[in-house]
């Protein structure tokens, strides 16, 4: 092929060009290049002439094709109506073929021309690259120029465009004549390609032709397209990431002043959104542009760009914007060492920086401080040394001043900045200034109680400063003052403190034990959260499990830690593996701990508990890897586990063993099976405490893991069977406990044999005879507690829901709950067990309803005696019925009694069990109320009964909150039950209120009573919320409950004291809006339904009638308190009603601290109650406020008739202040204008009646006359302000 091309070159250049057009494959191109490189000068001259003529002809043909294509496109776009007949003809096959032939001919001609043009470009490219340069540039230039002029139109052939652009690029780089004529099309093409493709090589090609951009006239309007492409370069990542791209953008800043302005605007627009790398690239670009720019462009960069960036960094509206601006400025700040940069920065920022450090805006102070820290030390190169020293001292003064700034963010920035400056310039900063700054940080700011973030900043700054070895000598003397921060109340501070101690671990000159004592470290390791405990473990590993000593010595040190601080040793073992201790070393530690427990050396119970807990943690961490789990099984053999179990003398130790065994899964440990069976099957007074409860929970997990869950359920059912016998003994109705389902094949579970011998095992373990009524009840309740724990844990609950004995278990729970409602108050068991059957029964019913297996759920419910349509509805209705019908059941002649009670009190225990929803004083005529013992008995009965009923109410709330009670009537039954419960509670408080101050309950029983009352109040308040959330029409039905709640709170002050009553108020505080909504609806309903007269024509008798119908004690007490408050404080703005803040609810004390004697004179509950309720009313809905104020005025009318003027004054005072604060008659309340009319009418009637009473001045006392005048003035002012 090469010879063919060469022969054609010798014969005729035109023949060569035609042959090149036909052979454009890769081998053909190679052959053409080789043939052209063999040509001499004579052949080159003739070929150049022919090439110019051929290229001109082909370019003309290409233009004609382009024009004809455009003409045809326009013709077909707007066809004339005459072509309709032609369109029908085109539908024929002959016409279609004719059209197709025409299109093929047009496309074929275009391809032929494009091939000829590509041949010209290839010949010109190979001729230009001739190694001997036989082709003269002046001879090739005409052809190259023709191709350049058509470059934009060659968009269909990217290869042709690349060849032509490459020719023009080479022509420009070689500085050949006429190169200025070859950039108009090639430069925009290269720039556009670099933006589209985004490759570094294309960016480099543009940068290599950067000088060509100076040839363009950027003032001309036709340059806009090129300017748009240049603007895109500022936004394109390919240019910002590559060095050549950034240099090219910097070069653009020096081309034209107008272009520089536009580029600056473009850069500024990207600062709020740019990433860190992009912003730093902008900084480098601007710095390089400033360094190389000419004078006009330099002035523009300094004044329009740098000056505005400095101002933006100081006055930015957000932290993010200020940070982004400083990243751009870092391009200059990091180059301070270069000539002229420092002088420029000082000249630009000096007028604004120091002034901004003293402004009132904390954001500006913070931004200016960050800028000062970045530029530190700020110096003027043109000033003398004394002036610079004064300037440096001024900077330190500002830093010291801002360390004590009022804004925490400024203090944080100052601490971080000072520590950074000290670390970088420690050697050159005077020691006096260093000591002064660090002392202020460590002594004052490190103990800033107002901000935990400031304390974190101090620890972070000191940790950063420790990286400078020169600072260690000074820090050694002052860093010890930071030790208390390890016990800081904020977790983040403690984490940073642990990080600082870890930094000290690698410094020989400073011991971390001098900062925090070993006792403090161990205490924090024991009690703190995992992030701190893990860091402290890493800190203590070199001391208590070092890798540089023998493994035996390391294990002995760890044992010493466990003996010294057992719980700290347990946490150490918990995190040792994650912090780098080899697993093989921890396996050896397991062996050492197991041998230590079995050794004859005497160990304390606390030490044994720590060792067992450490073994448990180690086994849990190591068992995650299969090979380590096998090694653990080899260590913890059957004999070893038996020995461990024998040495476990406490419940905590046994719990650790059970949890450990559940992980390693040994094959056969019958002793452990027997022990777990004892825990589940046998109960005694010694096992009924929270510690042993944890042991029982661990047994549950172990039995589930080893396949004994079914045996566990059967054991619980056997204990429930005792309750059915008790029901028969007392003649109570019951549901029979379903018999256990027996499998056809005997279970091979290792638990089966252990469960069969549970009674004999119990006798061997505890010398207790499992007989008697109390013992049977205790076993049933403890079985219910086990069931409750099974339902609470997700894994066990799922297993229980699919267990075949679930109906029998549910039936047993139902009978136990039934028995508890009859005699549960008298059962001598801990309080946390009495409500277990009810909680387990309710929770199990809920999860049966939510269970996805609908058929299984229905069958289980039906077999257990529960309505299968909706277990929750049936359980809810049944529980309410049991609680409400207690009085109709047979009397209890139970022999059950507390051991602490004397025989002389047995008569009171044989009395009928009082109804849960009746007055606690009913039927107590045989009791001597003057007896302190009897009062305590009544209080204990109240607490016991209240806890059970609170649990029931909590269960009902659980049902309603999950939206499981679908029946609306049943929902209102729940609300009615809450109302009756609150009425019973109110009756108890009234009874205690009548006993007098000398006969109030006190001590532990009083605290329990307050806690019970508080729980009941909170649950009833939430019941209001749930009811109104589901149905707003229920507000009227819930009004009685709302009134009972408020009455009980006011009565509680005389029983529990002021702070005790305030704790009840705090518990109801989240539900107060619902309370007021229901009361307001009730008041509005009274006036709309009970009175037939027009609301605007009410007479005084109507108001009195409404007041008598709606008379509530809490309203009278509140209004009386309001009258007393205003008589003491007057109308000053600072009086309690004018204050909007009350922080008592936010910092409410515990029940033990809140309970005080009844005659507590140091705390005014009524005034606090008044403030809180007034704030809620004023900030609430105007419609609700209108209903409440009408209720107050009705009470005022009734009190006016009975001459109780204090209530009248209080009602009018609250009305005046509430209306002025809330603006009841506003645009938002126009649709409820009838409420305002009621209020205005009531006020006018009040004025009329006051005038009638005031006419009889001689028959009125002086105090009553003053009160009436006060009421009259208030009402008149109120009406006058409304009219205005």
Automatic annotation (TrEMBL):
GO cellular component: a single term: nucleus
Domain of life: Eukaryota
Disordered: annotated span: 81-103
Family matches, as InterPro entries: ARM-like, ARM-type_fold, Condensin2_G2
Record GO biological process: mitotic sister chromatid segregation
PANTHER family reported for this sequence: CONDENSIN-2 COMPLEX SUBUNIT G2
This protein's name: Condensin-2 complex subunit G2
């Amino acid at each position: 092929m090469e010879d063919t091309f060469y022969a054609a070159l010798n014969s005729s250049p035109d023949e060569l060009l035609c042959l090149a057009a036909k052979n454009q494959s890769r081998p053909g191109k190679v052959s053409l290049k080789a043939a052209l490189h063999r040509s001499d000068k004579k052949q080159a001259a003739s070929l150049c002439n022919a090439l110019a003529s051929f290229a001109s002809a082909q370019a003309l043909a290409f233009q004609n094709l382009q024009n004809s294509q455009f003409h045809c496109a326009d013709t077909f776009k707007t066809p004339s109506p005459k072509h309709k007949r032609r369109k029908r003809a085109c539908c024929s096959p002959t016409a279609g073929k004719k059209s197709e032939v025409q299109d093929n001919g047009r496309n074929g001609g275009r391809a032929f021309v494009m091939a000829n043009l590509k041949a010209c470009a290839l010949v010109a490219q190979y001729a230009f690259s001739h190694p001997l340069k036989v082709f003269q540039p002046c001879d090739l230039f005409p052809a190259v120029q023709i191709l350049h002029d058509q470059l934009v139109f060659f968009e269909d052939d990217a290869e042709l465009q690349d060849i032509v652009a490459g020719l023009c690029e080479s022509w420009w780089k070689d500085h050949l004549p006429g190169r200025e004529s070859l950039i108009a099309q090639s430069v925009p093409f290269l720039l556009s390609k670099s933006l589209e493709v985004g490759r570094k090589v294309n960016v480099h090609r543009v940068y290599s032709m950067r000088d060509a951009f100076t040839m363009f006239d950027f003032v001309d309007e036709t340059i806009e397209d090129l300017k748009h492409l240049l603007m895109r370069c500022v936004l394109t990542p390919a240019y910002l990431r590559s060095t050549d791209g950034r240099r090219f953008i910097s070069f653009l800043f020096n081309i034209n002043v107008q272009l520089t302005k536009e580029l600056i605007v473009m850069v500024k627009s990207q600062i709020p959104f740019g990433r860190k790398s992009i912003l730093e690239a902008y900084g480098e670009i601007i710095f390089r542009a400033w360094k190389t720019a000419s004078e006009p462009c330099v002035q523009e960069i300094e004044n329009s760009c740098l000056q505005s960036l400095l101002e933006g960094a100081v006055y930015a509206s957000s932290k993010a914007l200020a940070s982004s601006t400083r990243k751009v400025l870092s391009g200059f700040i990091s180059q301070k060492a270069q000539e002229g940069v420092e002088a420029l920065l000082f000249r630009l920022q000096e007028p604004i920086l120091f002034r901004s450090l003293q402004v009132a805006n904390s954001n500006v102070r913070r931004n200016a401080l960050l800028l000062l820290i970045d530029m530190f030390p700020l110096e003027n190169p043109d000033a003398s040394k004394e002036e610079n020293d004064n300037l440096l001292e001024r900077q330190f003064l500002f830093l010291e001043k801002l360390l004590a700034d009022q804004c925490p963010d400024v203090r944080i920035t100052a601490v971080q900045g000072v520590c950074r400056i000290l670390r970088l310039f420690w050697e050159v900063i005077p020691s006096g200034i260093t000591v002064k700054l660090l002392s202020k940080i460590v002594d004052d700011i490190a103990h800033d109680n107002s901000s935990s973030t400031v304390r974190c900043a101090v620890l972070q700054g000191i940790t950063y400063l420790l990286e400078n070895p020169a600072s260690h000598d000074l820090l050694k003397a002052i860093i010890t003052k930071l030790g208390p921060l390890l016990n800081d109340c904020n977790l983040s501070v403690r984490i940073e403190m642990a990080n600082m101690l870890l930094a000290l671990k690698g410094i020989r000159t400073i011991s971390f034990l001098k900062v925090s004592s070993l006792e403090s470290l161990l205490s924090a390791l024991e009690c703190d959260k995992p992030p701190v405990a893990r860091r402290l473990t890493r800190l203590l590993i070199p001391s208590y499990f070092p890798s540089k000593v023998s493994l035996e010595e390391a294990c002995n040190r760890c044992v010493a830690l466990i003996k010294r601080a057992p719980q700290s040793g347990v946490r150490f073992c918990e995190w040792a593996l994650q912090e780098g201790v080899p697993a093989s070393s921890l396996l050896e530690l397991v062996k050492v701990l197991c041998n230590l427990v079995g050794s004859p050396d005497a160990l304390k119970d606390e030490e044994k508990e720590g060792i067992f807990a450490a073994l448990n943690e180690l086994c849990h961490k190591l068992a995650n890897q299969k090979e380590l789990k096998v090694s653990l099984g080899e260590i913890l053999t059957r004999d070893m586990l038996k020995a461990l179990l024998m040495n476990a003398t406490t419940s905590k130790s046994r719990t650790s063993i059970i949890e450990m065994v559940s992980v390693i899964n040994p094959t056969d440990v019958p002793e452990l099976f027997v022990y777990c069976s004892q825990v589940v099957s046998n109960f005694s007074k010694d096992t009924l405490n929270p510690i042993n409860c944890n042991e029982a929970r661990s047994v549950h997990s172990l039995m589930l893991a080893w396949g004994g869950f079914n045996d566990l359920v059967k054991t619980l059912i056997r204990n429930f069977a005792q309750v059915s016998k008790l029901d028969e003994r007392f003649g109570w109705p019951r549901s029979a406990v379903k018999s256990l389902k027996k499998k056809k094949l005997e279970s091979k579970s290792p638990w089966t044999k252990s469960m069969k011998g549970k009674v004999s095992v119990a006798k061997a373990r505890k010398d207790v005879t499992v007989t008697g009524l109390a013992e049977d009840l205790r076993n049933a309740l403890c079985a219910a507690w086990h069931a409750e724990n099974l339902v609470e844990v997700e894994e066990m609950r799922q297993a229980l829901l699919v267990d075949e004995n679930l109906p029998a278990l549910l039936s047993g729970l139902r009978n136990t709950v039934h028995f508890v409602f009859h005699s549960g108050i008298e059962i001598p068991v801990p309080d946390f067990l009495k409500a277990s059957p009810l909680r387990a029964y309710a929770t199990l019913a809920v999860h049966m309803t939510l269970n996805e297996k609908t058929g299984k759920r229905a069958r289980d419910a039906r077999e257990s005696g529960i309505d299968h349509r909706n277990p929750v509805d049936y359980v809810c209705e049944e529980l309410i019925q049991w609680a409400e019908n207690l009085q109709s059941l047979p009397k209890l002649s139970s022999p059950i009694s507390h051991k602490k009670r004397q025989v002389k009190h047995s008569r009171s225990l044989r009395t009928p069990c009082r109804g849960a929803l009746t007055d606690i004083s009913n039927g107590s005529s045989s009791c001597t109320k003057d007896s302190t013992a009897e009062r305590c008995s009544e209080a204990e009965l109240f607490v016991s009964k209240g806890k059970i009923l609170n649990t029931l109410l909590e269960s009902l709330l659980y049902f309603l909150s999950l939206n499981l009670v679908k029946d609306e009537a049943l929902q209102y039954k729940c609300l009615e039950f809450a109302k009756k419960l609150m009425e019973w509670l109110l009756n108890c408080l009234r009874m205690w209120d009548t006993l007098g101050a000398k006969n109030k309950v006190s001590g532990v029983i009083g605290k329990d009573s307050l806690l019970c009352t508080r729980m009941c109040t909170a649950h009833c308040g939430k019941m209001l919320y749930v009811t109104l959330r589901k149905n707003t029409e229920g507000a009227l039905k819930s009004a009685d409950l709302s009134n009972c709640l408020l009455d009980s709170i006011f009565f509680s002050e005389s029983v529990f004291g002021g702070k005790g009553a305030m704790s009840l108020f705090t518990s109801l505080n989240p539900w107060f809006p619902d309370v007021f909504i229901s009361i307001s609806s009730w008041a509005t309903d009274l006036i709309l339904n009970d009175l037939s007269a027009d609301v605007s024509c009410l007479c005084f008798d109507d108001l009195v009638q409404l007041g008598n119908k709606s008379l509530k004690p809490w309203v009278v007490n509140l209004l009386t308190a309001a009258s007393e408050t205003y008589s003491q404080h007057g109308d000053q703005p600072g009086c309690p009603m004018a204050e909007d803040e009350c922080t008592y609810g936010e910092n409410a004390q515990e029940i033990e601290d809140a309970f005080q004697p009844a005659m507590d004179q140091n705390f005014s509950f009524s005034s606090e109650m008044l403030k809180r309720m007034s704030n809620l009313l004023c900030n609430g809905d105007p419609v609700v406020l209108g209903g409440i104020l009408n209720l107050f005025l009705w009470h005022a009318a009734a009190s006016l008739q009975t001459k109780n003027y204090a209530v009248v004054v209080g009602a009018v005072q609250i009305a005046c202040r509430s209306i002025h604060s809330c603006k009841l008659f506003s645009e938002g309340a126009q649709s409820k204008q009838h409420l305002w009319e009621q209020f205005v009418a009531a006020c006018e009637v009040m004025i009329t009646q006051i005038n009638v009473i005031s006419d009889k001045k001689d028959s009125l006392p002086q105090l009553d006359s003053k009160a009436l005048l006060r009421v009259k003035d208030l009402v008149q002012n109120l009406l006058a302000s409304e009219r205005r």
